[in-house]
Amino acid sequence: MNDKNDEARDRRWLLLLALFWLAAAIWLVSQKWAAIKGLALPDTDDNLRLQQVRDWLGGQGWFDLRQHRMLPPGGADIHWSRLVDLPLAGLILLFKPFLPIFRAEQVAVTIAPLLPLGVIVASLAFISRRLIAPNAWAIAPVLLMFAWSTLGMVAPLRIDHHGWQLALMMVMVSGLVMRRRAAGGAVSGLALGLSLAIGIELLPYLGLTAAITSLFWVADRAEAPRMAAFGAASAGAAALSLMLFIPPDARWLGLCDALSLAHVQALALGGAGLVLLAALPLPNWWARLSGLLLLGGVVAASTWVSHPQCLGDPSALIDEDARRLWLGNVREARPIYRQPIQTLIASMSLPFLGLIGFGLAIWENRRNPARLRGWLAVATLAAFSFAFCLFQTRAAPAAQVLGLSGAAMLAWSLIRLAHRMRPPFRAFAVAGAFLLSSGLMIQLAAKALPADKRGRLVSKAGVANKRCATLGALRPLNRVPPGTMFTFLDLSPRLLVTTHHSAITGPYHRNGKAIADVMKAFGGTADAARAIVGRYHADYVLICPGVGESTIYARRAPNGFYSELAAGRAPDWLEPMPLAGDTPYRLWKVRKN
């Protein structure tokens, strides 16, 4: 009888979880409805992702990832993976027979990001059930609704690869806390291999997960099945991903900014070593640790001999001028403490509260080895991501989603205290527990703070960014004969999606020489710009004054090429091209003679 009740309870929580995801999806769609109607993809990567899918569905090869409307005629080198294209392309093909293509794309870009949202919600619920209590599954998914940085990666229109990377990372963490050791190791390993197929941004987290899985075994020999399954699954998934998603001519080059032979070689050697170590009858922890350290040394030495470039700073491979002019101005590549104060608090309050919750969980489970091991694993990843934000703001979404389990434990502890109160006060105490553990109270208090100078500049540029990205602002450009536009890096992907024009390049680091040239042109003199524009055989020069990128050029060269154009003073080698309608864009035709 108890078994039947347990099965019914399991089915019930899964049904409620699905309903929660559906409700969250509907709420997010309602919040983004105006942007959905205007196909207002929020980021350069989202726009280029849609264009890449269009090109693929239009006949471009599976392994041809170049963007041929940038840097024509050869195309810009885009090192992305088709894995993330699959759900988006599938949704477009699903709705295309019933809707005009524009409407089919609208539906696809609305639904596609909600799929990784579902994976994250399910992973958080699973972790809570395993580590907190079976009936605590809903707390972390509810708190996710207050994790703005994470939620922004899986909201409608956010079709770039970051949402899927976060989802696979949480699947990987779920594998760490699974009771069935071999299954848990296989789940974590498969998620690691697929994540590498998408991109290597989360490589530090993947490496840390491998270390945690191995240290489980060092502490407890019974963890051998988890470690062996992890090693085999991660190596196998990465090798298969290399063959399925990486162009043949790029597989064996040993490139470090995308999945390549360098990564598969390390995973294959390391995975085989983990399987071998798991099979050896090593009797004590120091023997197991010695074997693990020896394996780590072999993998590191092998990589040093065959692909030494992959052990250094990845940004060192970017064009030197692009690194100096462009990378230092990428906001998400800056430390979190260099962001506006409201951004810092909104990003870090929940991860900070999560660390408090992890401390409570570790103390409370100090005599429960199985749960303690799980909490230590998740807490280690969360603490690492929190520290990583001190170097790069781009770590904030990972810090939030990893901190949610700790925040859920904090909420659970506060809810248990609230249940000791009398009914009239209990409901208020429970609501207060959620407000506190979500960081919302801290964020609301932060909003009362006056915006600092950085915050005011970001807000002002944000208004221009939104206006310049609208279909209404871009539509007049389609009345101009097709040509190659010399424009800002961040405008180029949007230009491709909404017009029939080509562009020089976008903010994609393999095209570092072109990135540097665009920035030198707008941030230099008109004469220097003329030489660069001519070198790329551009037909037009296009600007949208006030957008975030333009502030870099205005600050760097108050009397430079961009500043003169924005002030209405164009050189004689540019012919003004009036644009119809109310558009913030300014366009000039290049006089080729």
UniProtKB/TrEMBL annotation:
Source lineage: Bacteria, Pseudomonadati, Pseudomonadota, Alphaproteobacteria, Sphingomonadales
Keywords assigned:
Membrane, Transmembrane, Transmembrane helix
Q: What is this protein called?
A: AcrB/AcrD/AcrF family protein
Q: Does the keyword Protein biosynthesis apply?
A: no
Residue spans crossing the bilayer: 107-127, 136-155, 161-178, 190-218, 224-246, 258-279, 344-363, 375-391, 398-415, 427-446
